[in-house]
Design a protein that fits this description.
- The complex is a heterodimer.
- The longest helix of chain A has 16 residues.
- Chain A is built from seven helices and ten strands.
- Chain A folds into two domains: 143 residues, Rossmann fold, CATH 3.40.50.300; 63 residues, no CATH class.
- In chain A, the strands form two sheets. In chain A, strands 6-7-8-3-9-10 form a six-stranded mixed β-sheet, sandwiched between helices. A four-stranded antiparallel β-sheet of chain A has the order 2-1-4-5, covered by helices on one side.
- Chain A is of the alpha/beta class.
- Chain A is 35% helix and 25% strand.
- By secondary structure, chain B is an alpha+beta fold.
- Chain B has two domains: 191 residues, no CATH class; 98 residues, 2-Layer Sandwich (Alpha-Beta Plaits).
- In chain B, 72% of the residues lie in helices and 8% in strands.
- In chain B, strands 2-3-1-4 form a four-stranded antiparallel β-sheet.
- In chain B, α7 packs antiparallel against α9 and α9 packs antiparallel against α10.
- The radius of gyration of chain B is 32 Å and the shape is elongated.
- Chain B starts with a helix and ends in a 6-residue tail after the last helix.
- The chains are: A alpha/beta, B alpha+beta.
């Protein structure tokens, strides 16, 4: 589903975030990217979503080489990837419903269908009663679940998350991880960057997960 | 298709709602655009009115042909008949020397002084009004030259200089108002573009999020284009109002001025056609200004 072949990424300031990185994540796999900050976890996720482009090497997502995706094809590429961020990236002046509906609105889904799918998605993360609230009225954990609902509302085959539990206490973190596991169970490829090794151990104790350790921009075997 | 139309309608009214929330900022932008559009609109009204004034002059252009004082009445009558036969004159009026003197005596009040003259000093005269197509100054000059060559004609009087001057002034006014209109249109486009640029800047986070979830450039740009259109439309409506107000304020003194000259001239406003053009101009400039600003700015707002 996701394949990196000898990928290098050097930023304009000269920092080399990834150097000769190769890895493959199979379809329906739940994989954790671990490593210290600066190991290249975020950069790797950004290359998948084409927020950044590789300096060298090939990145293949869902069977397509991303190097060949032109600027105007970016939206179509991003619609097949659900993204969850550490800071949630919710729109502060829109309701929870409108926030979750955004990916459907941008891809031109009809109003009726939007209502159905947004409610289904909010139900999956247990926030259906909150649909009329604004993000500030929710706790951090709830806001992160809204972020997840938004990431999966358009049923993308790939879900990527950058430190999704970075701001949460252990109980809430585990709850969020359980939600990710459920998506893996229905066939979504899930890739999560996290430095919380204890949490990953906890998740691994109940279901098989893959751990990919990065260091200095490459995969540590 | 219905989904697409619904989205556009939502954006259209969504942007209007957002603008009405930021009343101060919106009001000031629209005021600036409105004033900038009022100037060319007023120049347009002025040009239109001056041109209308010119039309009423054109219809009264006449040539006066004076016969030699020794020419006989019969010769003048013969010439009048000859000229009447020509298709390019709408009217040929013969004023015999006696009639001319009588008229002069009646009008001038020099009656007694005229009695002292032994003979009539006035020649026979022909007043000629050319057909309406004969209005160009060059044509009239050529015609005057031709008439002067006719037998028995002493002189031909044609006051074409002022017609020329008037038309030249009108042309200058027209070009001037075009230049002003183009400059102000550029100004309005820049104002709207800059407002949209600031708007995009303040909504950076929102744009980045929309792009992250797969929004196309067109989708992200759409609300800004509609905002620009609203600004342009609002400014044009204000300009329409201001122009109508200015015309209303000026129409009273101008009617009085025309009355003093014995005319009944009334100032005309932009009219339905002109109003529609002004609104279309406002909307067009709003769209262009926001399109340029959005295309230029939105490329720089990328998620990181």
């Amino acid at each position: 589903m996701i394949r990196f072949e000898h990928v290098f990424k050097r930023y304009p300031n000269g920092r080399e975030a990834l150097s000769d990185l190769s890895l493959e994540v199979a379809s329906g796999e739940l994989a954790f990217l671990t490593g210290h900050s600066g190991a290249g976890k975020s950069t790797l996720l950004k290359l998948i979503a084409l927020i950044e482009r590789p300096t060298r090497g090939q990145v293949t997502v869902n069977g397509r080489n991303v190097n060949g995706i032109a600027r105007r094809k970016l939206p179509a590429h991003r619609r097949q990837i659900g993204m969850v961020f550490q800071d949630h990236k919710l729109l502060a002046d829109r309701t929870i419903f409108d926030n979750v509906a955004l990916p459907l609105i941008v891809s031109g889904v009809s109003g009726k269908e939007i209502g159905k799918r947004v409610r289904a998605s909010l139900d999956q993360v247990g926030l259906l009663p909150m649909e009329r609230c604004l993000p500030v009225e929710l706790s951090t954990g709830e806001q992160q679940r809204v972020g997840i609902a938004r990431a999966v509302v358009s049923k993308p085959p790939i879900l990527i998350a950058d430190e999704p539990t970075g701001n949460l206490d252990p109980d809430l973190s585990l709850e969020v991880m359980r939600i990710f596991s459920r998506f893996r169970d229905v066939g979504v490829t899930v890739l999560i960057a996290s430095h919380d090794l204890a949490l990953i151990e906890h998740v691994a104790s109940s279901s098989p997960v893959r751990r990919i350790r990065l260091e200095g921009g490459r995969v540590l075997q | 298709m219905i989904v697409w139309l619904t989205r556009h309608a939502q954006t259209l009214f969504g942007t209007l709602g957002r603008l009405s929330q930021q009343r101060m900022q919106t009001g000031m932008t629209i005021l600036v655009i409105g004033i900038a559009l009022t100037l060319p609109a007023c120049l347009q009204v002025l040009t239109k009115n001056v041109a209308a004034l010119g039309d009423s002059f054109d219809r009264t252009i006449e040539l006066s042909v004076y016969m030699r004082t020794d020419a006989a009445v019969a010769q003048a009558e013969q010439l009048a008949a000859q000229l009447r036969a020509r298709p390019d004159f709408a009217e040929v009026r013969l004023i015999k020397a006696d009639e001319g003197l009588a008229e002069f005596r009646a009008r001038s009040g020099f009656g007694e002084a005229l009695d002292a003259l032994e003979s009539n000093p006035l020649p026979h005269a022909l007043v000629i009004r050319p057909v309406a197509s004969f209005t160009g100054a060059k044509q009239l000059d050529a015609l005057a030259g031709e008439l002067k060559m006719l037998p028995g004609v002493e002189s031909v009087q044609l006051d074409s200089v002022w017609v020329e001057r008037f038309n030249a002034m009108l042309d200058a006014l027209r070009s001037g108002s075009w230049v002003a209109a183009i400059l102000l249109a550029i100004g309005v486009t820049v104002i709207i573009g800059n407002t949209i640029r600031a708007d995009i800047h303040s909504r950076r986070a929102e744009i980045e999020i929309a792009k992250l979830v797969g929004a196309s450039d067109a989708f992200v740009r759409r609300p800004f284009l509609y905002t620009g259109v609203w600004y342009g439309l609002g400014g044009a409506l204000l300009a329409l109002l201001l122009t109508a107000l200015i015309v209303a304020l000026l129409s009273v003194p101008i009617a009085r001025l025309a009355g003093l000259y014995g005319g009944a001239y009334s100032l005309s406003g932009l009219g339905l056609d002109g109003s529609f053009k002004l609104l279309a101009l406002g909307v067009g400039l709003g769209w262009v200004g926001s399109l340029v600003a959005a295309n230029w700015q939105l490329r720089q707002v990328e998620p990181s």
